[in-house]
């Protein structure tokens, strides 16, 4: 959608994005066929189908946010906030909007996936922590010592992206709990010298962190749903 609004061609999925979406689509197809056969009296399959479709949409929205942020970043050339023209300030504001939208969605998707895994594999994580996160779910897998292959894979992905995830989490927390993340950068600079111009944050570094967050999400969703499809197949489900 955003690509069309920005005058770009629609996205063609490939690589990590393609694998994540196709794997989740396969899950929804398996669930739909099973509901056709057995009517799903408990609505468990319908619930998982809806959640999985929601994750597909959320992944698409995350990728679009990263793409739009990168698009508007190209029009920001000034090194200091004070040196921006009015037009450049507008482009920078649009960059900030989609960048923030992106890093917030990274953790939103992880927590949605945590809800799916908790329900699907009967982890009862809410007994450990009522308002649990994806990372609590990962710890619950290890505590219960179940589905260890999936647990190890998800942990390995998390550890691979530890540094960019930590950066994105700090900015997400600042954005949600304290102040706008870009204003926090400005405040720190003001403390260094009230008469100095505010230097623009490293936009390319921020975009790279967000892209790594997107890659981590794709790999995590792929791993979780490849494993889930295997489990469903072992239960006799097929398209």
UniProtKB/TrEMBL annotation:
Domain Cthe-2314-like HEPN: 51-229
Protein name (Swiss-Prot/TrEMBL): Cthe-2314-like HEPN domain-containing protein
